[in-house]
Amino acid sequence: MTSMMNRKDFLRNSAILGGASILPINNVFSQNVTENGMDKLVDSNGNFIQKSLPYNKTFLEPHMDEETLHLHYEFHHGGAVKGANKDLENIKKHLQSGEMDQVDMWTRKLAYHFSSHVLHSIFWSNLTNKKTQPKAELLKQIEKDFGSFDNLKAYISKISKSVEGSGWGILGYQPYSQSLTLLQCENHQKLTQWGVVPLLVIDVWEHAYYLKYKNKRAEFVDTVLEIINWDNVAERFVTAKKLHG
C-alpha cells in the first residue's frame, strides 16, 4: 500500500484541485500528484520515478491475477521507467558531444518509454475491485460527446479490442475542442492527438492479460471495463479542465 501523504501535502494538493471533497485523503490520485494535479512521475532532480501500487497485488483478483499484476508492474512498467532514464541520460550526453544522430535515436526511444510510464501510471489508479458508475459532471460530458454511457463503453471496448498489435484504448480530454475523445493507441505513443490528457486507459499489450486470459483479449477488455474506477476518471477530468483553463 502507498503510505498516506502528510497533512501539508494533502492540503496543498486539495487546494489546487478544489478541496478535499474532490480528492479524499485515501484516494491514490490525491496521494500521487504534483502541485498542478498531474501524476508525479519525476523526482526533484528530473529523474523518472515509479510510484508504489495503490493496492496489494491480490486486490484486483479474480479479474486480474496476482502473478500478472506483479510481472506487469515490476518488469514491464518498471522497465519502461528505467528505459526512460537511460534514454534521457543518453540524450544529454550526445547533445554535449554534438552527436545528433544519436540524439535522434534516443529521442525516439524516450517517446516510447516515457509514454509507457505515463499510461501505466494512469492504468493502475484507474482500476478498483468493484463496479462503479460515472456521475455528475463527467456523466454529463459523456452524454454530450457520446450520447450515452453505454455508447462510450461500446466505443472504447471496440477500439481496445481491435488495436493492431500492441497498444491501448484511451479516453481523454481534448482541450482544443473542450470535449472527450477516444484514441486507439499503437505501442505506447503512436496515433495520439496533440493536447489530449488521458483520463482512462486500457492496456491491451499481451503482457497485461496472457497468463490468465491467454489469447482472449476481448474477454480481458470486457472484464477491465467492469472494474474501472469512474471516481478516479472523474477526478482526472476535473484536473484536465483546470490545467487548460
TrEMBL record:
Manganese/iron superoxide dismutase N-terminal domain: residues covered: 51-127
Catalytic reaction(s) noted: 2 superoxide + 2 H(+) = H2O2 + O2
PROSITE patterns linked: SOD_MN
Domain called Manganese/iron superoxide dismutase C-terminal: residue spans: 134-236
Keywords, ordered alphabetically: Metal-binding, Oxidoreductase
EC nos: 1.15.1.1
Transmembrane segments: none
UniProt enzyme class: oxidoreductase
Entries under InterPro entries matching the protein: Fe/Mn_Superoxide_Dismutase (IPR050265), Mn/Fe_SOD (IPR001189), Mn/Fe_SOD_BS (IPR019833), Mn/Fe_SOD_C (IPR019832), Mn/Fe_SOD_N (IPR019831), Mn/Fe_SOD_N_sf (IPR036324), SOD_C_sf (IPR036314)
Sequence similarity: Belongs to the iron/manganese superoxide dismutase family.
Function in brief: Destroys radicals which are normally produced within the cells and which are toxic to biological systems.
Protein name (Swiss-Prot/TrEMBL): Superoxide dismutase
